[in-house]
Design a protein that fits this description.
Strand content: under 5%
Largest sheet: none
Radius of gyration: 22 Å
Helix content: over 70%
Structural class: mainly alpha
Number of strands: 0
Oligomer: single chain
Length: about 240
């Protein structure tokens, strides 16, 4: 067994990986994902492109896309700052160990174990950066595809162009969500610096919060309410 680690550490890390992987599969792969908030918003991305192809003036659409890109760029920059913080922490291992040792809960760990934990945190933030950076690039591609949509909204070329732009936007959003997911699980990972048991509890808490947001949040309720009212509203508009 690696010095500084106990069986509880391996079990906690296995639980962390299983929670992240399981959530990823549930949200993106299983049939249940069709009822997730992310998948519902993918439907509205397609609807957005369908409406876009019927507009000659696409300034509003450009503004929306720029907002998505700016948000992605912000998180990519934040990831770089987090990576820099991890590297700084590695350079101050001795100081960090003394601080942890002086805390009331008296965290006892070895230098190797501490550096391994910090390295794992760094890997999470590097993963997040690549996801956000790739998402930003994909939103650029989506902007190009939007610009290539035929101005004749009734043509087959316009419908195909809108479908391509919607698909690219959905993929960009999916990678953005994966980057954010890494940030959320990084919060749970921080519990490992205290105890493997705290890692398990923190990971379970993060998983519960994220699951509720995807499948039981008020945001999803808002979409359900609007979807239920849509036929009635449409009928009134057609009268």
């Amino acid at each position: 067994m690696t010095p500084g680690f106990e069986w509880a550490d391996y079990i906690a890390v296995a639980f962390f990986v299983a929670a992240w992987s399981g959530y990823h599969i549930a949200v993106e792969k299983l049939s249940a994902s069709r009822n997730s908030l992310n998948e519902r918003m993918s439907h509205y991305r397609r609807a957005w492109m369908t409406q876009l192809m019927r507009r000659e003036n696409r300034i509003v659409d450009s503004t929306i896309l720029a907002s998505l890109q700016n948000g992605t760029a912000f998180f990519a920059s934040t990831s770089l700052f987090a990576i820099a913080g991890v590297l700084t922490l590695l350079q101050a291992t001795d100081t960090a160990l003394s601080i942890f040792a002086d805390m009331p809960f008296g965290v006892a760990t070895t230098r190797l174990a501490f550096e391994a934990k910090v390295g794992g945190l760094g890997i999470i933030f590097v993963y997040a950066f690549f996801k956000f950076a790739w998402s930003y690039r994909l939103f650029n591609y989506a902007a190009i595809l939007i610009g290539a949509i035929d101005v004749d909204g009734n043509s087959q070329a316009a419908r195909e162009g809108a479908a391509r732009a919607a698909a690219m936007s959905i993929v960009a959003g999916r990678h953005f969500n994966r980057g954010q997911r890494a940030f959320f699980f990084a919060l749970g990972y921080l519990g490992w610096f205290i105890s493997p048991y705290v890692l398990i509890v923190a990971t379970a808490a993060v998983l519960a919060v994220m699951w509720r947001r995807q499948f039981g949040s008020d945001a999803l309720d808002a979409l359900d309410a609007l979807d239920a009212q849509a036929p009635e509203t449409l009928g009134k508009e057609n009268e």
